[in-house]
Amino acid sequence: MSDLDIIGLSAAEAAGEIAAGALSAGELFEAYRARAAEHVAEAGLNCFTWVADDAPAEPAPGDDAAGGASRGGTLHGVPLAVKDLFCTVGVPSQSGSKILEGYLPPYTATAVSRLTGAGASLLGKTNQDEFAMGSSNENSAYGPVLNPWNRERVPGGSSGGSAAAVAAGLAPWALGTDTGGSIRQPAALCGIVGLKPTYGAVSRYGMIAFASSLDQAGPLTRDVTDAALMLRHLVGHDERDATSLAFPEEIGPPSAERLEGIRLGVPKELTGDSTGGDGEGIEEGVLDSFRAALSRAEELGATIVESVQLPHALHALSAYYVLAPAEASSNLARFDGVRYGLRAEGAKDLLDMYTRTRHDGFGAEVKRRIMLGTYALSSGYYDAYYGRAQRVRTKIAEDFRAAFEQVDLIVTPTAPTVAFKLGEKTADPLAMYLNDFCTVPMSLAGIPAISIPCGLSEGLPVGLQLAGPAFSENRLLDAAYALERALDFDGSQARV
Ligand code: GLN
Q: Domain residues of the chain, as ranges?
């Protein structure tokens, strides 16, 4: 098979070709490894912070044990790109931060080991916003990632390296994390599929934490079938993460061709051209693509329900930007120069060493979040900020519960704009935070949501988000699959 043919295969197709003997796992790995290596550090798209040196050894014919766990299993050695913040034993795991420069964890995150245990091979670690804080990948200590659709544009964030790598054909698929939108928004801006699972469906063990009550790992893939395949291997209880849960059913390959009987709720709060007073609404080009996709859904038999309401969704961003920084300020207290990565030189005493290390090691956005979070949790302000934000969170979860009595799934644009220019929003944190307007409510409610590409605006991809009740992933994937087939989006133009 030529390299071009190999790169054209989805992860599921590649696994199938290997199983059928038409392609070797080594050949597949080497094709991607060579491509990924051109985009490592600040070369090319800067998608990767680390790329594996060699393809894993070929098992000898008839020798099932050769090659170790990574070659067995149903994934047949398909290469996997992994967001930097997943601990991977002996491999740099820096969460996009200078404070973790050179950190080599002694263990591997469960999400990663589940996939390698099923036969995936670790291809590389992907660039990301520092500690997953951001929507453009410009907060990485390792430089920004470029969007393969247009290199003057951001890929979205914080899983920007993962999204750009998949869109550019530098990895068949990738693992990301989503706290307030970091899988779905970069998937939308790069024209691929991104799924944030139900909170607790995937173990967080070994993920360098941002906001523990929100962080979830999930797939970034070329198509919905690959998202289902990866999710199938990710889910399940892990005794090392007390918040992880047994998934109530197996994740199956999606197969729906129609949407008959499916009621799609279009909440006006998240689909209007005004996002509630902060000035920037949802872009017209995004709304046009979104509306066209809804018409396709209707042709497939879905019922569009415009009367569904999420009355508290307008307050989701405000609550998120209290809660996530509060949790982050606590999670990041461990980076003190003693246990991991960077330690500042020349300190006069212990406190000075802590202070200098954190001063030198954290970037501006991380410092902003630590200050916000520390303030929101301080005595005297705790009830006014953190307590109130928690109550808003409960209201939002209740809104969704009520909505799902009226409809099966909620549908919105994933992001209010297409990929914006590098540097366009870096000076205005509030404008940057608005990127998460449509994705944060689902994160606060802990429910699953998927973004699929639904068209182009100004030559750049637009994402459509589908959300469902907790553990409705199979239904969500089925609906996304039917819609994906009908929309027939061509993402191959972004391959480098
Ligand atoms: N962009 C959001 C933030 O900066 C969400 C990030 C995420 O989901 N990790 O917090």
A: 1-315+388-496, 320-377
